[in-house]
Design brief:
It is built from 3 helices and 2 strands. The chain is mainly α. The chain has a domain of about 40 residues. It has a two-stranded antiparallel ribbon with strand order 1-2.
């Protein structure tokens, strides 16, 4: 954990409030688009290695 020294001299770690300020723009449509993009990319990354096998089973060729 990274410690931040406030001007008063007390040490504070990253809190939920600090992270909430960093990601405050992530609401509404931006949040929905980001989540959908992550799900889509994860799905494609899982499926992509098996695409050639699937095409060959359907009778396709390279």
């Amino acid at each position: 954990m990274v410690k931040i020294l406030k001007p008063e001299g007390r040490s504070v770690g990253y809190s939920g409030e600090h992270m909430a300020r960093w990601f405050s723009f992530m609401r509404g449509n931006i949040l929905v688009m980001t989540v959908c993009e992550c799900v889509l990319r994860s799905t494609i990354d899982i499926i992509w290695p098996f695409l050639a096998i699937y095409v060959l089973e359907l009778g396709g060729s390279y």
